Amino acid sequence: MAAPGQGFVAELKGAVTPRAALLVIGVLLLQLGFIVSYVGALHEPTPHKLSIAVVAPPQVSPKLVQALESVPNEAVKPVTAPDAATATQQIRDQKIYAALVVNPTGTEDTLLVGGARGASAAKAAESITTALDKAQGRTVKVEDVAPLAKGDSNGLSAFYLVIGWCVGGYLVASILGISAGSKPANGHRLLIRLGVLALYSVAAGLGGTIIAGPVLNALPGSILALTAIGALVVFTVGAFTMALQCLFDVIGIGIAVLVFVVLGNPSAGGVYPAPLMPPFWRAIGSLIPNGAGTSATRSIAYFGSTNLGMPILVLVVWALIGMGVAYLAVLRGPRSGGRELVAEPAES
């Protein structure tokens, strides 16, 4: 008869296999990574090279540029603009975040901001320029030349819409993998999965756009263009998740969560734009589908679809990598113990 302690150890080994124990440890690390990433990215927004243009007479402009350059910690990246109209267009083209327009005949200057690029960036620019003008006995009034829609008061609708699209992408890929095997049995099965993902992506893109736009009136912009971006985001995230599942089985889902949730969401520029985030998240944000999708969605909604080239390129590259890696993984043959099998002919 086994000793009580030995019986418990045997039951424990039967209840929690070594593989399950490793997966639990992986989940713990993923959870801690989630906390580190979100808190690390968002707990202390500090401007870094926030682009502010100076519109001022030639005898004043160099002094203002130098004063902005001297703001501690490289908070400002000052540039010059010939006039207010040019500066306004540069804000709407997403080339700069704000512009200080000096009034040569009075003591009240104007700060042009683009609220749709991020209220926190506009507030940071206002704080910096107000302190600068106050030291010179001047005041600043703020003019928003790219305001948010009435139903998008915090400017987060584009970000949350893209989060929803990303969640749909990795969930539908995960469901397809769990229900029929992480790796398709052959190339035809992979094409079928990708086809299902494509149909789902169009439906998700259209559904999300209609909810955020006409239904909730939270986001303006072309329904067709936003649907196309939404479909591309969903397909990109789904295809890459499929590739991870083909390579790493169920662990691939955890890696997808790491990429798109732990790293992608806080760095996407939704809560704070890139110049207000720490270096690591600032560097990766535009290179992950979450950030690329948020930038593209915001551009369509508020900035006349300017600067769409890079976000779309990022999404397409991720999608191509996902499809390519999945196809190569399928060519290597089925994973040992995989559940998706080609049906064998029945015996007569």
Write structural notes for this entry.
The protein is an alpha/beta fold. The chain is built from twelve helices and five strands. It has a five-stranded mixed sheet, with helices on both faces.
Briefly say what this structure is.
With 348 residues, the chain is an alpha/beta fold.
What attributes does this structure have?
348 residues; alpha/beta; five-stranded mixed sheet; 59% helix
| Radius of gyration over C-alpha positions, nearest whole angstrom | 25 Å
Tell me about the largest β-sheet.
5 strands, mixed
Distance between the termini: 51 Å
What would the principal axes of the Cα set say about the shape? Answer: elongated
> Which secondary-structure class do the elements indicate?
alpha/beta
Q: How big a fraction of the residues is strand?
A: 5-15%
What is the element layout, followed by pairings?
Blueprint: H1 4-15, H2 18-42, E1 50-55, H3 61-69, E2 76-80, H4 84-92, E3 98-101, E4 108-113, H5 119-134, E5 139-144, H6 157-180, H7 187-215, H8 223-248, H9 251-263, H10 279-284, H11 289-302, H12 309-331
Helix pairs in contact: 2-9, 6-7, 6-8, 6-9, 6-11, 7-8, 8-9, 8-11, 8-12, 11-12
